[in-house]
Write a structure and sequence with these properties.
Blueprint: H1 7-21, H2 28-55, H3 63-70, H4 74-79
Helix pairs in contact: 1-2, 2-3
Length: 80
């Protein structure tokens, strides 16, 4: 199966796969809701990364921008 080109469809597919891997049944409404939350987080993260890069007067997002976004999430910070 080809990967969807629409980011929201790709997120939905990833969430649906992850839910299927959990060996429990999840309703389509739950998968839709979780996909919407994940897409919202991704959009916010993208805007924050772009804002950090702009503030630093850079045209591209850097690892430093990612670290700034992760600073309040210990799990993310530890993995960086």
């Amino acid at each position: 199966m080809d990967a969807p080109t629409d980011p929201r469809a790709a997120i939905w597919m990833a969430v649906a796969r992850r839910c299927a891997d959990d060996e429990r049944e999840f309703s389509p409404a739950f998968v839709d809701a979780l996909s919407q939350v994940a897409a919202g987080v991704a959009e916010t993260l993208g805007r924050d990364l772009e804002a950090f890069a702009r503030h630093a007067k850079r045209a591209k997002v850097s690892v430093d921008d990612v670290r700034l976004c992760a600073r309040r999430n210990p799990d993310w910070t530890d993995s960086l």
